[in-house]
Input
Amino acid sequence: PLIPDFPDLTPDQVIDLDEALDWLSKEDSELAVIIQHHYFGRLTYEKIAAMMGLSRKTVQRRLALGRALLKKKMTERNDPKGEGSITNLGGKYGSKSSPDYPKHDPR
Output
């Protein structure tokens, strides 16, 4: 497999993942760092939490958000009508109509 934690990714999907991570790093650099440390650095929740000054639970929540955002972003290429578009998430990660979603304290 190209990426051990994602054994079923095709080469095109790896490119989509790379582009989605690039997008995420511009939108929320802390979230991108957490994703990279966990999946590519293979660090535990505890190690990431200690390194970044966050609680273990916050790391878990941020990883869940990051996975959802990456999945949504990766499907954009294959969704010509935009029904799965990241803009449908609202707030910081999409349209300006829902500025309260999601809340993030960038400590």
